[in-house]
Amino acid sequence: MPYSISEAKLFGCRQSMDLAKSIAQEYGASLGQVNFTTFSDGEFQPSFEESIRGRRIFLIGSTHPSSDNLMELLLMIDGAKRASARHITAVIPYFGWARQDRKDKPRVPIGAKMIAKVLEAAGATRIITMDLHADQIQGFFEKPVDHLFASSLFIPYLKELGLSDLTIASPDMGGSKRAYAYSKILESDVVVCYKQRQKANVISHMELIGDVTGKNVVLVDDMVDTAGTLTKAADVMMERGAKSVRAICTHAILSGKAYERIENSKLVELIVTDSIPLRQQSDKIRVLSCAQLFASVMASVQNNESISDNFIM
User: Fold this and answer.
1) Segment 243-272 mean pLDDT
2) Residue 241: which CATH number?
3) What is the pLDDT of residue 198?
């Protein structure tokens, strides 16, 4: 049953075009037409090829690197504002630069706050995103933020697996809150990994807090980048007597040697969403689409309805 689209129009950024098409299909609409002019030096200019005056529009695009993806979304927001759109909702399945959510040492930026301010300055009147790296990023915005949780996709999948002796694990101390939320719903035990880094993306030491002997372990995280933490955690848990180790990560950044690490790891599977398109396919990676979740929330926003039914935790 298609959702009511009323006067809303949907547009996709090029980096998220496949997901945008899926969202539009779930929503019951067609994507609007945007043409891009690209100059010799790489500069580009989007152009809306239909009237959006007085309309609510949804601009769908994740802001994962490169920075061109963020720039494309910003230009489309500005173009929509100058075309007299009434409401401009930035639908950002993956909110990039979110790891810079605080000053963790002197003389560094708070990148996530800067991005929030830039989005608002460009003309975004609402943000819809999913599984922010840090919940407090919502407070960087003065505009409404709908922060969705991929748990509404992952938990039904985990229940279908019917794993006995299930244990939820966090790959680091920072993700323990998320792991405990999953364990409460699934009525399972929790373990936490404690890791020390030499530098970004390089782990020097990892310890396990809790017992995984004879357990089917599911690691829970918001993103997987180089996959170093996940694969190291899987190795440690199997060494400690786990039956199996899976991982669920909302955003599949998968940079560097991530695919190679996953293929050579002791992970049974890595379950992700399509918030970021995969660069290559892998038999160990299962993708769950977040299109229906976003379409449902977008329809509720357009029709001024509650979105609380879309949250599991």
Assistant:
1) 97
2) 3.40.50.2020
3) 59
Please, are residues 57 and 8 in contact by the beta-carbon 8 Å criterion? yes
Residue 306 lies in a domain: no
**Annotated catalytic residue: which of 9, 195, 215, 232?**
195
46/36 Cα distance (integer angstroms): 4
Catalytic annotation present for 195: yes
Question: Tell me, what's the pLDDT at 288?
Answer: 98
Reported as a pLDDT band with limits 50, 70 and 90, residue 168 is very high
In a domain? residue 267: yes
CB proximity list for 172: less than 8 A, separation 6 or greater: 192, 193, 194, 195, 221, 229
Answer yes or no: are the C-beta atoms of 230 and 224 closer than 8 Å: yes
The average confidence (pLDDT) of the chain is: 93
Q: Provide mean pLDDT across the span 267-290.
A: 97
In this structure, are 119 and 185 located in the same domain? no
Sign of the Cα pseudo-torsion (48, 148, 157, 217, in order): positive
- Does residue 157 lie within any of the structural domains? yes
Distance CA 75, CA 57 (A): 14
Q: Tell which of 148, 180, 195 closes a domain.
A: 148
- Are 139 and 161 part of one and the same domain? no
144 in the same domain as 36: yes
- Contact predicate 136/101, CB 8 Å: yes
Render pLDDT for 63-78 as a digit per residue (tens, 0 to 9).
Answer: 999 999 999 999 999 9
Q: Could you tell me the residue range of the domain that residue 53 belongs to?
A: 9-148
pLDDT digit string, tens, across residues 208-218:
899 999 999 99
Last residue of a domain, one of 133, 148, 163: 148
User: Are 20 and 124 within one domain?
Assistant: yes
Q: What is the pLDDT of residues 83-140, one digit of tens each?
A: 999 999 999 999 999 999 999 899 999 999 999 999 999 999 999 999 999 999 999 9
In a domain, 1, yes or no: no
Pairing of strands 87-92, 189-199: unpaired
